[in-house]
Amino acid sequence: METGQRDDQRTATQRRRTELLEAAERVVLRDGPEASMNAIAAEAGITKPILYRHFGDKSGLYRALAKRHTDALLATLRTALDSPGDRRDRVEATLHAYLSAIETRPQVYRFLMHPAETPSDEKGFDVGRHSVPLLRRMGEDLGEVIAERLDLGPDTREVARVWGHGIVGMMYAAGDWWLGERPLSRDLLVRHLADLLWGRLAETGDRAGSRGL
Amino acid sequence: METGQRDDQRTATQRRRTELLEAAERVVLRDGPEASMNAIAAEAGITKPILYRHFGDKSGLYRALAKRHTDALLATLRTALDSPGDRRDRVEATLHAYLSAIETRPQVYRFLMHPAETPSDEKGFDVGRHSVPLLRRMGEDLGEVIAERLDLGPDTREVARVWGHGIVGMMYAAGDWWLGERPLSRDLLVRHLADLLWGRLAETGDRAGSRGL
DNA sequence: AGACTGGTGTTACCGCAAGTAACTAGCATG
DNA sequence: CATGCTAGTTACTTGCGGTAACACCAGTCT
User: Fold this and answer.
1) Cβ–Cβ of B165/A177 closer than 8 Å?
2) In the predicted model, is pLDDT for residue A211 greater than 70?
């Protein structure tokens, strides 16, 4: 039967595709994001053109590779966001989930945070985009969750998106710094960040003799 | 006199250096951060090896180029942080200053946000560092300012650094998203972010029928 | 004067990476 | 048998970062 064979073919090529992705992942996690296509092909036991047939170009391969981890990370963040307890508990659980993820697999983190490799370089002009896909997706997702669950008045969706991206960025920058220097425990870091989100910045008094922040 | 001539030499080479930097800047702002050394050399009317004599390698050139803009941006942020008004006014002014900067010169922004080009690739292993120098510096600076001006208890410096990086990250991610989509005015964006920092997330009630955030 | 130094600049090259063209071999289907 | 589809190859082009070797042109030291 034609469709049956087609399906076999498709699943076969897709299996091959994931095999190649797994080889690529091994290399990227060993050599970093600057791994060469040759090295990846060698790891997979084949040569370059096959990679190009499957993924178009290097950014295509990297996008496919990033998607898996991004999906996985987002899933764990979602479940953390649904953990039991009050709102503060949930926020702290989510921060913990994120920080734990980047702590246990820093190479994956580094790979995912590499900004997109200028997939469309049309005509050489460049808009002012930076675009780390993982950050964008996390921000959008969190924004949606906030909009679903909180009532922020008439422009809830707008505010929620801003907050989503803002909170994600807070988590990202603090996590990146923390991962590099490790000047405090994860627990404390989470607590301080939650304090920040809980408005302690506004409540805290000026230091004596300061003109105030 | 020896020193006098030495000084002349030094100023001369330094002038040349800044000329080269200006040429590099023109090219980078035209072609994006992936501009080639050849292109930069051509723009400066010379050939590659001179660039390498002045800056060591490409990342050296880029670091020199980034430093100027980073210093300038940090200076304007500092003054915004010292603007008149109460604390919220100052925070909003700083957010405005940052967003205005990335809005008016998006190519500079894109260039500055490019993570460091793996300056030391020792032995091929990679720690989990990402390191966008501008973000780090902004975070550290803001942390210092916070530590100077606020009394956050016994571990003020620790909390202040966390908050510095966190707030900077919030500003960064929200700004990056906003710059790409422009779904609202800068004024509103600033207000929503300040609301977030002022603890509105904790104050806001759950939406009816939601399990709460 | 002549050798030395330190800057400017060049041409010509190496190594390596992304990406492609052209071709081959298996294997099912009309 | 011919057709087409896939997985695979070798060998190439193009372009980049980076370097070696050399030339020129000040002033400086002896």
Assistant:
1) yes
2) no
